[in-house]
Specification:
- The protein is α/β, with parallel strands linked by helices and 178 residues long.
- A 5-stranded parallel sheet has the order 3-2-1-4-5, with helices on both faces.
- The longest helix is centred in the first third of the chain and has 31 residues.
């Protein structure tokens, strides 16, 4: 009987000490935390969920590796004969003009000199450069999206803070206007 009482007294003391430490820790954390709104509320999602990556903000600047997007995205599974021609360039520009983000700034860059007979395509800016990859690297900025399947270029623009989007994913967001 005496050993049972002794055990219960020891357990009660241990729980009391644990409760004191717990309450003291909570009180000091509340005292040390900065004033302001809570980190999350029902109106806004939690800032961090383990194992879940937040969606990055939608880019407003879209830089498109033109011939790469034609070859990999536009002509995927189709004959690649004449893939560099003005017909395919116009098709890409037409598709890009139907991009789902109305406020997006879209630049499509092609290697080479601009042919004199080609015209612009509305909100989509067409650029010809001696080296499209070099042009893209000069123009890229953090938060921009670069449309390419070129692994080397993709790695280089990622290091500059840009998001890489595959040609197929970009074209899937371009709604054709009949």
């Amino acid at each position: 009987m005496r050993s049972t009482q002794s055990f219960l007294r020891g357990a009660a003391e241990a729980l009391t000490v644990t409760a004191i430490f717990l309450l003291g820790g909570l009180a000091s954390a509340a005292w040390l935390s900065p004033p302001g709104p809570p980190l999350s509320s029902p109106a806004e999602p939690a800032l961090y969920l383990p194992g879940v990556e937040p969606d990055p903000p939608t880019p407003t600047l879209w830089l498109v590796d033109g011939y790469n997007t034609i070859g990999v995205g536009l002509l995927a599974g189709r004959s690649r004969e004449g893939w560099w021609t003005s017909n395919h360039r116009r098709e890409l520009l037409r598709r890009a003009s139907g991009f789902e983000e109305d406020g997006a700034e879209i630049w499509v860059v092609f290697d080479g000199a601009k042919p004199s007979q080609d015209a612009g395509a509305g909100r989509v800016r067409e650029v010809f450069a001696p080296d499209a990859d070099a042009w893209l690297l000069r123009r890229v900025e953090a938060g921009a999206a670069v449309v390419t399947a070129d692994r080397r270029l993709a790695e280089r623009v990622r290091r500059r803070g840009a998001r890489v989007v595959s040609p197929g994913d970009f074209l899937a967001r371009c709604h054709s206007e009949a």
